[in-house]
Specification:
By secondary structure, the chain is an alpha/beta fold. The protein has one domain: P-loop containing nucleotide triphosphate hydrolases (Rossmann fold, 3-Layer(aba) Sandwich), CATH 3.40.50. Helices cover 39% and strands 12% of the residues. It has twelve helices and six strands. The protein has a six-stranded mixed β-sheet with strand order 2-3-1-4-5-6, sandwiched between helices. Helix 3 packs parallel to helix 12, helix 4 packs across helix 12 and helix 6 runs parallel beside helix 8. The longest helix is centred in the C-terminal third of the chain and has 24 residues. It is globular.
Length: 294
């Protein structure tokens, strides 16, 4: 507990101590198979939509690539690390824009949703991903292979990586901010400014947004003892509330998860948390594409 107090000065000892007697949010722990089947059965209602495109952004080390690999692990029923390996194989993690597909059955058969990772959103004007690049990606102007440059955005003159005429399948349908639990409630002013700037563009485009809180078991002793304490944790509830107030993402659009970073086998409880946010991503994306003009 002393370690938690040291890393989270914004919270009082009373707020950090213990757990609520009843969960403040319900999750279908026993319905993992039903949630998994929902994802496996999903197909975009519109015939012209090949897949939902989900764009992840957030600070360096937040767990964006880990989240992609964790979703892959849940759906494959075994630990996979493809996104993690590819993200960390170059001189800078996740510096190159890439679309990640998740295999569903035989080779060439994929789930109808894809993920795009981005360079970390760091503080300062000339560090981390350029906010304009995230906006361009949301609009479908960014092609795979583009190398992020913190000092400048993708230029419309770049014929190799600038997509001048994006199709509906190039555009983003869901925007996800990923942040670790131990820093979620302590967003610096410059960082919040970047987030709100990106969120305004997403709002203008009508793109639904949510947030994923990672490393929850490392940040809270109650969750570390039992992952099912996630929605009983006073610490996590306070963290999510402060994060929501700071960046403007509603509480019901913020989801805590435990990524598969150290485990070598899947776990039903971790799977349930990941599936809960994946289902919301699918539902949000489906609502968005159904509201789009044909």
């Amino acid at each position: 507990m002393e370690q938690l107090l040291g890393t989270c000065p914004a919270h009082t000892a009373m707020e950090l101590a213990g757990a609520f007697s009843e969960p403040w949010r319900e999750i279908p722990w026993r319905d993992k198979d039903r949630e998994l089947q929902y994802v496996k059965n999903y197909k975009p209602y519109r015939d012209d939509i090949q897949h939902l495109r989900v764009l992840l952004y957030g600070p360096v080390g937040a767990g964006k690539s880990s989240f992609i690999s964790s979703v892959d692990s849940v759906l494959q029923g075994r630990i996979t690390t493809r996104a993690l390996v590819e993200a960390n194989s170059g001189p800078c993690p996740s510096r190159t824009y890439k679309t990640y597909k998740i295999q569903k059955g035989q080779p060439g058969d994929f789930y109808p949703f894809v993920f795009n990772d981005t360079l970390g959103l760091q503080m300062g004007e000339d560090s981390g991903v350029h906010p304009e690049d995230i906006k361009l990606a949301m609009k479908g102007h960014m092609r795979d292979g583009y190398r992020f440059n913190p000092g400048s955005k993708l230029s419309s003159n770049d014929s190799q990586y600038y997509n001048a005429e994006p199709t509906v399948n190039d555009k983003v349908q869901v925007l996800v901010y990923v942040v670790p639990a131990d820093t979620a409630a302590q967003q610096e002013e410059d960082h919040v400014k970047k987030i709100k700037d990106i969120r305004r563009t997403a709002c203008d485009l009508g793109i639904p947004q949510l947030a994923v809180i990672t490393n929850i078991d490392s940040a809270c002793t109650e969750i570390h003892k039992d992952l099912k304490n996630v929605y009983k944790s006073k610490y996590l509830k306070k963290t999510m509330e402060e994060f929501s107030d700071s960046v403007g993402i509603p509480m019901n659009c913020i989801f805590p998860v435990k990524n598969y970073q150290e485990k070598n086998v899947v776990n039903d409880d971790a799977d349930s948390l990941i599936l809960s946010v994946l289902r919301r991503i699918i539902d949000f994306g489906e609502e968005f594409i159904n509201d789009m003009e044909t």
